[in-house]
Structures are given as C-alpha cells and as structure tokens.
Amino acid sequence: MTLTMFTLNAFYGLALAMNMFIIASGLNLIFGVLRVINFAHGMFYMFGAYIVFTVTKSWGAPFFVGVLAAAASLAVIALVIERLMLKHLYGKEHLMQLLFTFALVLLMSDAAKMIWGTDQYSVGYPQGLGGAVNLGFVVLPQYQLFLCVVGPLIALAMWLVVDRTRWGRIVRAATQDREMLAALGVNVPMVYAAVFTIGSALAGVGGALAAPRVALVPGMDATIINECFIIVIIGGLGNLWGSFLGALAFGFVVQFGTVWAPNWQDVLPYLLMLVVLIIRPWGLLGRPEST
Amino acid sequence: MKYSVMLAALGVLGAGTALAQQPPIKIGVLYPLTGGGAVYGVPAMTGHQLAVEELNAKGGMMGRKIESVERDDKLNPATASSTMKELITKDKVDIVLGGLASSVGLAMSEVSKQEKVVYISTIPKSIQITTDKLHKYVFRTAANTDQEGDTMAMLVGKNKLTKLCHLELDYAYGNDLEAGILKALPKYAPDAKVVLTLKPKLGATDFNPFIPQVMSAGCDGVISGLWGPHFVSWVKQAAPLGFFSKIKWISGGEIGSHEIAGELKGDYPDNVISNTYELWYTSNDPSHKEFQARLAKKLNTQETPQWAVLGYIGVMYAAAAIEKAQSTDPDKVSAALEGLSIGTPVGKLTIDAKSHQANIGQFWGPMVKKPDRAYRMMEPAEYIQPK
Amino acid sequence: MPERRYLIASAVVVLLLALLPLGGSRYAIDVATEVLIYVLFALSLNVLLGFTGNVSFGHAAYFAIGGYACAILLTTYGWPLLFALPAAVVLAGTVAAVVGYFCVRLTQIYFAMLTLAFAMLVWGVAFKWKEVTGGDDGFTGIKLPAMLGHYTSYFWFTLAVVAAAIAALWVICHSAFGLTLIAVRENSVRTGFIGVDTRRMRWAAFTVAGTFAGLAGALFGMYHRGMYIENAYWTESAQVLIMVLLGGIHSFVGPIIGAAVLYLLQIFTNQYTTYWPTVLGLILLVIVLVLPDGLIGLMARLRAYRQAWRRP
Questions:
Q1: Considering the domain boundaries, does residue A229 fall inside one?
Q2: How does the average pLDDT of chain B come out, rounded?
Q3: Share of residues in chain B with pLDDT > 90 (%)
Q4: For residue A71, with 0-12 CB atoms within 10 Å meaning exposed, 13-18 middle and 19 or more buried, which class applies?
Q5: Do residues B238 and B297 share a domain?
Q6: CA-to-CA dists, residue B380 to B279, B288, B364, C289, angstroms
Q7: Which CATH architecture describes the domain C24-310?
C-alpha cells in the first residue's frame, strides 16, 4: 500500500468513524443515564433523514434548516414517547424496556411507510459542500471533511456539558444513584426526559447529516442500529470517550479490513466486537458492572 | 357425473348465471411489500393488479373470473415458502407468481416442485432457477444473469474499454452476474482485462472502503451490478471526487430506469450506460402506449415505474397458458407454457420449451441530460433481446 | 398430585394432536407442524432466559446450525436420517458449548451482545461458505426418507420428536439442575455462597438450550426442504425471544403458548394486511405496559380474580 493510498484509507476510515459516532453518541448517552437500550435509535436516525428530505425537497428550505427541523421533530417525538410510555418502565426489568423500544421500531417503520411511501429518495449536498478539496497528493470530498469536524465537535460539546456544568453533574449523579439524587431534591424524572429527548435529537441529527451521502429507503435503519450497538459496546456502554474510541476502532477496522479481506465486510464489525468482549468484557473504557 | 350434468344444465340456463356460479380461477402472488424490498415489490404488485383488472373487465379466463390472492414475502425465503404453501393448500390457488430476491425465487421453486403447482418467476434473475434447479413446474419471465452479463460484455466491447474495474454486490445476484459477464467477455472484448474486482455487501450504505481503491486502479471502465439504493449511495459518495468524469460506468441492475433517474435528478452522473425493463417515454411495441396510459392512471403519475411491467407480464403469461390449456391442471398449464408466445407491452415474448426462460429483453443505453427535463433520460434506448 | 394431573393433560393434548390428520385439512396439518417446531425452538430458549435470566440475542444460530447440518448430511452426504439428525443436534450442542464457554463469563447486556456477535459469525459462515451451504441462495432440495415424504407422516414424526423433546426439557427443568438454575436467576451471589458454581450452571443451560434449538432447526429444514441464511439472522433470534416473552418466561408452558399464539396470529394477520409490524408492535406494547408476565401471567391473574369472586 502506497503512502497516498494509506492516507486516503485513513481519511476515509476517519470519516466513516465520525459519521457513525454522530449517530451512536445519542444511543450512548441514553444508555449511560437511563440504562435503557434503545433499539428505536436507528428508526430515529431514519426519520431524521426522511425529515430532511421533506423539508429540503418539498418545502425547498436550505439543508441546515432541514437538519434543525429533524432534530426538533425527533426531540418532540421522543418527549411524547418518554412522557406517555417509557417513564413507566424505568423501574422494570431491562427486558421490558428493550421490548418496548423494539415495539417502537415496528410501529415507526409502518408509520414511515404511511407517511413517505416505499419509494427511494435522495437529498442533495448542502451548498458549497458537494465538491472536493485537492491537497496536492490526495483529493478529499468536502462533505466528509465537514463530518470529520462535526463529529469531534459533538463529542467535545457533550463532554463540556456533562463534565463541566451543573446540569451535567446532575446527569452524572443520575447514572450513579437515582434514589439519592431524588432525595436531594432533584427532579429526576425531568432529567430522564431531557436526556432521552437530547439523545433522540442526536439520532435525528445523525440521520439528517447522513442523508446527502446515502439513498433513503425503507429498512435503512436496520444495519445502522447494529453498527451503533457495536460501537457503543466496544467502547464501554455509557462512556462518551469510549464510544468515540469505539467509533474510531470501527471505522479503521472496517476500512482497512475491507481492503485486506474484501469478502468479509459484513462480519468484520461483529468480529471486532467479539474480540473486544473476550479480551475486555466491559468494553475498551467501560467499568465492570457491580452486581 | 351427476354434478357435471347439473353444471352443464346450469350452463344452458344462461351464460351470465354460469359465470357467477363457476368458481374463480385463483392466482397466488408474492412480492415484498414491507421493508427494504418494498421499493420494487409494491410497483410490481401494482402491475399485477392492473393485469388482473383488465382480464376481469374482458370477462375473465374461460368464462371464469380471476381472483388474485396477494401476500407479502418480506424478502425472506422461509416466509415465502410457508406463505406459498398456504396459498396452495388453504386458498387453493391454481398458479403462483412473483418473488424478487433470488433466494425467494429458489425457495418458491422448491415449493412448486414439491406441490406440483406452476410457479412463474417474474423478477428473480438467479440463473439456477432455469438451469441446475430447473423442473417441470417452474418458468421465468424475467431476464436472467447470463443474458444481462452477455449484453454488458457486448457494451464493453462496443465502447472499446480495456482496463476494467468490476463492482458487484456480494450475494447471489452479484455473483451470478459476475459469472455471466466473465463468460461473455472473451467473445466481445478479447482485449479487455479486469484489473480489480470488489464486492460490497448487500445493503451497504457506506462505500468509503471501496472508492479510493477504484479511484487509484486507473481503469477506463467500471462494470457494475450495484442496483437501486446501492448505486445512489455510490454516486453520492464518489461523484464529488470527479469519479464519473474519468470512466464509463456500464451497469446492470436496472439503474437506467426512470425511478433512479427521477430520484437522482441533477445528481445523476455522466458516462452511465445501463438497462431497464421498460421506459414510460419510449417503446418497442404499439401496445405499450395503452398499457402505460392505464398504469399512469392507476398510479396517478405520468412517470411510471418500470417494475410494474414485470408483474403485468407474469399475469398475462399465466392467463395465456390457462386459456391455451383450457384447464387449470398444473401439468397441462406447464405443457402450455412451454414454447408459448404472447404479445406484451415490451413486444412479443416466447418461453423456451427446454429452459423455461422467456426471451424478454431490456432497453440499454446512455443516460443523457435533457434541456426541458429535471431528470436524465435514456437516449438512444436500444431494445436488446436475447436470441 | 398436580404432577400427575399435568401428565395426563399433556398426554391428552398429544393424543388429540395425533388425531388431527383424521379430521384436519392439509393446511391445518402444515400449520400444526410449523407451530410444533416453533414451540420447541421457544422452549429451548427459555431454558436460558427463564431459568437463568440470561437474554440471548443469538439463539437462531443454533437453530440454523442444526438445520443446515441435518440438511447437508442428508442431502450432500446421503446419510440416513437416523444418523444425520442426532449428528446435527450434537453439532449444534457442541457449538453452543464452545460459544457458551465465552459468553457465560459476561452478564446482562454484554452477554446478550456477545451471543449476537457469535450468531452473526454463524450467519457469515452460512453466507460465505457457498460450496457447502449454498450461500444466500439457500440450501434447497433437501432429501427426506420416503416414509417422511408425505405431509401427514412428517407431521406425526414432528409431533413425536417435539413431544419427546418437551418431555426431556421438562425433566431437565424440574430436576435438581433446573431448580439450581432458578436459584442462580433469583440470586446468583447467594447461590454462589452455598457452593454452586454459577458460571458452570449457566454454561450447562446455554448448551442445553443450543442443543434443543438445533433439533428444532433440523425439523424446520426438513419441513421446508430448505435452509436459508435468514434463519440465522438476528431478526430470527428476536422473533423467538418475543415468542417466549409473549407467553411468559416464568413458567414452563409459557413459551409453548407464546410460540403458538404469535405464529398463528402472524399467519392470520398476513392474510388480511401487510401491516403486521403494527400489529406486533401493539402486542408488544400491551406486554410491556399491561402484561409483564405474558399470557401465562394473565391467565393466573384471571384465575385469582375468579376465585376471589367465588369466595365473597
């Protein structure tokens, strides 16, 4: 492999990683605080992409208005779901929460079919990001460079909020001891609702940002959700930098793995998860669960 | 004996009553109507329904009404197998049509063999259906991967391409198409060499791992079986790099259809030569115009999808065979289908008596910009039919 | 003596089912055969889920291994069923034992995700090992012994095998082993204190579950005369999980009822609408929000309610 090819592959691996991290970050946040495994996260991603399509194509709004609309719509959807149903399930077995989010997947997939039909759609690149940048020895697509900036920005913003603000302290405390926090007078249900809303809005943003790069079809949620789970799991569930690291591992393993073993592209992510879990059962940066 | 005498007596009483009294002829059909396959399954089902409506408006077959029993195969062969058995044993259908994925086609062919009921594969292209796994009751009105590969190899020769990159999806259709192309390549383009073969996974949305490899391989042509959303995602990710300005992209998988052109609109790249079963704006047969008008009315759009014609042809063939056999007995229908020629919106088709394969062709041609349209159109669209 | 009552009831159910071909239509027999296979599949998962509390996202892997192995041995190698079926079941059990060895070192969601990873590897092998498995074209044209060729005889065969397997599972689950498993589920730390090697117990349960799933898979492949890679996919694992949860995980008969109800509901719904996902989604919402113990829990509640009504 020449240096140019290596650079290209490294860049594409990074772009893949950042693309996935943006989607997975919300899933990770929700799990970290609520301990809920949100199967519907992929569906939220798909809705984000479809909403951008509607806003930009049907209403002719600029792309970034579409991204905001996707985030806002999913925040509203998530808030309604949380307040009406999910909040009754926090005390119950994990299995019940899991089934609940799976039910959301099924209901939302049919809802999407009713709203958008079964045609495939595509969304154009935002103005000025549809070309390429020539660095002399490599040519890189602008939009992927843009994602490589947005990904770390989201990670940094989440870190600042969670680690450096009062609200973040409350959120962190909620992951440790819900009862104690409630006893201290914090409105824990509000914290939960807020986290679920923000996490879901992030899925919407992820879908919206992915929309210009991919075809929008029914079922586009299915592969994404598994890959997000893999990223969050190998990083260590609930750990922000863990899932950032997990996304990088995923991006590079898939990118370089596919160059070397092109026929095993579909099992590579699972193989990665398998190896990580056997060596470090709690993920790269996770901590053992106390039983 | 007594029963048939009574039936005959009823027949004498009046054709109208007889039509009402006679049980309908039942056609079972499976297409994916949910999930990822629905993009194609839903329009194919529309074409199917259109054909059934037309036949019934003309008085049905052999004076009997046609009833269509429609089910979702969910793109899952095991589901298709169970559902097809149900259609046969519970709904007592006389013939089964449909399928989309190759694996579903093969699963349905297996049930057809076990239950001795005729199955017409209307979309699945897997060559095995009409070769290794061929049996008395299975027929195909779709193209197969050998025919598609043959035409693609011919186009490689015609465009004088020498250094090829080969992109196929890593599953049955992609593998079979690859074999079909490689078989025909020495015949049409003896100088052409495949320098790189890559196989993204089925359902891939991110082609980052493949684009740099193809970009740096230095080929003057890409032969590809990336269909539908795969092609769209590839275009969206590769076009910003100027990918399509340097190569010719010769593709199967019906990406020359209006569905893809209309979806990508201005983003549809240059230098693409591809195929489609049908085009709403072009035809090779006078009956196409009328068919397209009816379809446009049913779908409420002038720009109709190509998949409908496949569902439509399947029903036309089933009806013609039953009419010719004057019976719904599977053995007689199977015998009637062998060598049967019918007129369709894409011209006269004949099912080969030995291979059970119809000689359906496809439109092939470059996708060009039109000043008065937002989308590209195939021009000139050449109808290429296998010999 | 409740045990004897159940024994008689089960015998009556099996006998009635055996008489089905006399009165039932071809369709009823086909449906009954498939229901029996899913019943066994769901029941095998519950050895793991209901009795140890471990959620597997990859149970379809062992179903697929059993199905493919039996199909390949019968068809490619021409083995008689008498050897092919046991060999397939043993293979599924062996793979489950190997995978289980790694999985039981983990708990909760990590356990579930590791089972998923292994299952997707099995799927990958079935997909890529085209020469042997047929790849994603599926393995069709499975050769069955002539005496099982007829749908009635295959139904009786399935009934006999599934009834025997359920009896075996019942014995296993109600033995000292089964009771220990429940103790592990309820409080694994305390069970550890009294000298039980909890990890080994879970490992054994994993292996038993995989073995019986393999048997169900073998029956499935022979019934359809084909095995497909979709049978190993995670969606299949999710489906059987839902069957178990719908029936109720805390009782032996729960999964039997869950599998039968879900399967019948699915084929019934598909005859009228393509909106099965909505129907299933609503069913799941009812389970989580109203019926956390599944249909069995509902029946128990109704019974308690009726008894309370009778004694004012």
A1: no
A2: 90
A3: 75
A4: buried
A5: no
A6: 12, 18, 8, 60
A7: Orthogonal Bundle (1.10)
Q: What are phi and psi of C129, to 5 degrees?
A: -85, 65
Report chain B residues whose CB lies below 8 A from the CB of C271.
Answer: 71, 86
A51-75 confidence digits (pLDDT tens) = 999 999 888 899 999 999 999 999 9
The pLDDT value recorded for residue A291 is: 42
Whether the Cβ atoms of residue C264 and residue C72 lie closer than 8 Å to each other: no
163-192 in chain B: CB under 8 A from chain C: 171-172, 175
Domain that holds residue A37: 18-220
The winner for highest mean pLDDT among A124-133, C50-59, C96-105 is: C96-105
> Model pTM?
0.90
Tokens of B198: 């890559």
B338-380 residue pLDDT tens? 999 999 999 999 999 999 999 999 999 999 999 999 999 998 9
Residue B136 shares a structural domain with residue B219: no
**Domain shared by B223 and B371, yes or no:** yes
Domain count for chain A: 1
* Per-residue confidence band for A78, with pLDDT thresholds at 50, 70 and 90: very high
Which pLDDT value is given to residue B1?
Answer: 41
Q: Is the pLDDT of residue C84 over 90?
A: yes
Tokens of B215: 């970009």
Task: Judge if B233 and B377 occupy the same domain.
Answer: yes
Give the CATH number for residue B121.
3.40.50.2300
C-alpha C166, offset from chain centre: 10
Distance CA C275, CA A99 (A): 19
Helix, coil or strand: residue B221: strand
Q: Are A265 and B202 in contact (CB under 8 A)?
A: no
What is the domain partition of chain C in residue ranges?
24-310
Matching residue, tokens 């193809």:
B214
What was the pLDDT predicted at B315? Answer: 96
Q: What is the pLDDT of residue A283?
A: 87
Based on the fold, state whether residues B21 and B170 are members of the same structural domain. no
Q: What is the mean pLDDT of residues B286-307?
A: 93
Cβ-Cβ contacts under 8 Å, A213 against chain B: 205-206, 233, 236-237
For residue B327, what are the domain limits?
2-143+286-356
Q: Which residues of B touch A (CB under 8 A)?
A: 33-36, 38-39, 41-42, 170, 198-201, 203-206, 208-213, 215-216, 228-230, 232-233, 236-237, 240-242, 259, 263-264, 266-267
A114 touches C310 (CB < 8 A): no
CA distance linking residue B182 with residue B156, whole number of Å: 11
